[in-house]
Amino acid sequence: MNSYLNLEEAIEVTGLNEKTLQRFITAGYIQTRIEEQLVLLSISDLNKTFGLNLSEPTPNNSSELKIEVTSMELDDSEMEVPLVELQNATITSPVEEQTKNTSKNKLEDSILEKVIALQDRLIEDKESQISEQLGEIRWLRTRIEKLEDQAEKDKILLLSGNQTINRLIELNGNKRGWFGKTLTWLGNKE
């Protein structure tokens, strides 16, 4: 079952702003659908893209979303973060609050690192598209220059051809052979 969150809930859960989420949607990393003029984002795509562990809402309680981070492996120290339950969490001591904040910060850092990596990939894709388009522009400019040169050569040949014909007509003068009559008939010389 593929469940969805609305945009505001996704912003709250991921800690990202709307523009960043829109970029991931546009890039095709997050599947969306529209219901009653609300943009809904796929929970499974959010989990996969940002390394979250959002649970699917149950059919009985579809208005509540249960968010639970079971464990997260850290790249640097290979330690596991203890189980943190974000819904109905109670803070009993400052140490627990600090632990919760540290875990939350590590989770946010992990999400931000993934966002940065994905945005870097998007930038690389855009740069490769730009370089391809620049190559096409260079090819088109070269092609236009060649066509302009060819047109100039054709123009010169056409003018010299007309001048040659006119000169032949002048040389023939009153001699009106079949060639002169044909040229006269074509309108080159009366």
Strand fraction: 5-15%
Largest sheet: 3 strands, antiparallel
* SS class: mainly alpha
Helix content: 55-70%
Order of helices and strands: EHHEEHEEHH
- Beta strands, count: 5
* Average pLDDT reading: 75
Termini gap: 89 Å
Looking across the biggest beta sheet, what order are the strands in? 1-3-2
> What is the general shape?
rod-shaped
Q: Low-confidence segments, ≥5 residues, pLDDT <50? A: 61-67, 69-92
How much is the radius of gyration in Å?
37 Å
The tally of helices reads: 5
Fold topology:
Blueprint: E1 4-6, H1 7-14, H2 18-27, E2 32-35, E3 38-42, H3 43-50, E4 68-69, E5 84-85, H4 94-172, H5 178-186
Antiparallel strand pairs: 1-3, 2-3, 4-5
Helix pairs in contact: 2-4
Folded structure, characterized:
- The chain has 190 residues and is mostly helical.
- The protein is built from 5 helices and 5 strands; from the N terminus they run βααββαββαα.
- A 3-stranded antiparallel sheet has the order 1-3-2.
- Helix 2 packs across helix 4 (94-172).
Notable traits:
190 residues; mainly alpha; two-stranded antiparallel sheet; 5 strands
